[in-house]
Input
Amino acid sequence: MDSDAPAILVRDLQKSYGDVHAVRGIDFEVARGEVFGLLGPNGAGKTTTVEMLEGYRERTSGIVSVLGFDPGGRPRALREKVGIVLQDSGTYRHATVRELVTHWAGFYPAPRDIEEVIDLAGLRESEDVRARKLSGGQARRLDFALALVGDPELIFLDEPTTGFDPAARRAAWETIRALADLGKTVLITTHYLDEAQALCDRVAIIKGGRILAVGAPSELGVGAATRYRVTWRGEDGAMETRETDDPTALLHKLTSAALARGTGVQDLSVSRPSLEDVYLELTAEATPTVEEPAR
Amino acid sequence: MSTAALTWRQYRLERKMFWRNPSAAFFNFLLPLLFLSLFGAIFSGSQTDLDVIVPGIAGMSVMSTTFSALAMNMVFLREQGVLKRLRGTPLPSGAYLGGLAANAVTNTATQIAIVVAAGAAVFGVGMPKDWLELLVFTAAGVVCFASLGVALSHAIPNFDSAPAYVNAIFLPLIFISGVFYDAGNAPAFLKDIAEVLPLTHLIDGLSAAMVSGASFSSELSDLLVVLAWGAFGVFFAIRGFSWEARRG
Output
């Protein structure tokens, strides 16, 4: 596979369980070395999608290519190049961190150095602790270490920080950034906006089994909802808000009226929608504002 | 690494973990030996009774190390997501399951060896009369009860209920199958039930091999019953197998 080809390519991917359509035809690509996020509320189809890419679930229809392989048949050559952090998964409870990392390294043809992996995952202080005694955050680090020890090209992280306290989240983010710095491709699912914003090069917002928008976190605010929000304190003292595609004319009107009165415009602000606004708008229970791409 | 090397590695890890889990080590290993000592002591005055108890405990050991241990183990590994995690690695399924099975067989072999040694040294049963017969029946018992244990694990909804499911089968079965006494005196309906189930036949075979020296040909029907249950177990063990816990 040439290095220009995307690490992940998904075309019209669908998954149905009987009458339930969990994934309703989604398309996206993840470039090599990219950190890509699937962002959406619980039940949006994120995990179903990722588990089809990981080879845990058979797709109903569509095309999927992961590092040039079809993950459907779970080819071993693919499993050797992929690291998986599941939402929650146990391990040998009576084995120590070091024993587990060492054992896992044996599954892979060219594992990373065990000491390096323990340091990278931040497990140096708990290397001799048995898995059952690890805290939630430490257990997550162990998940990262076991996913990383085979030196994979691509790492799947399914809701890597759900249920974490802020300090543990920060630590997990640092580890994920370290993976990106190693040049790994990372596919991360999350329902945390700040997580997507902090970690991802690009994000796909997914809801009801469909992708509503794709783009860099900074661009997404521009793409779907291009309106500016202008707020100010009116003459009667109440806050006023207006949304506009072109704030220049509105600002001119406001400021010239104020100058004519010999006053200023109080509490004036002009803002562009944040990723959070876009996310809330797109995932609101109402009909999605973005049309499905024509096929 | 070759599949054989990976299986061996997996087996060594399973052995290490087995000894670090005090509860598994007790239920699968020490409990049958405790029964052997206690019942051996209680019936120490009667060689007839001892001749029943020693092969009976041997049969029970085969069942506890395979059926009980694997049923509980599989439920635990599935519910904890260990199976799912391993399935995402390059470790071949055969190497993993092979290591798991070899761990159980090691427990069986060790226990049979201890029961045989104790039978000869302490309980006056003497050395086994037919080693090949002992080996064949033990092997058939392992296949039968291991596969039935894995098959049962598919029907157990979660780990909390696993001991109840397992013991609801294991405890009545050891009592009606003549582990502790000659079941020949039991009421007819219990005898009929025991006659259909595999443990009685396994114990008959072990008894022939260890005590009476009855020839293979006379135990052939016992072997066939055990193998028939094994075929049933293998079918359902494979058919219902899932790498993931059922959700919601």
In short: The interface with chain A takes residues 1, 6, 9, 13, 16-17, 20-21, 77, 80-82, 84-85, 87-92, 244 of chain B (CB under 8 Å). The mean pLDDT of chain B is 91. The two ends of chain B are 38 Å apart (CA to CA). Residues 3-239 of chain B form one domain.
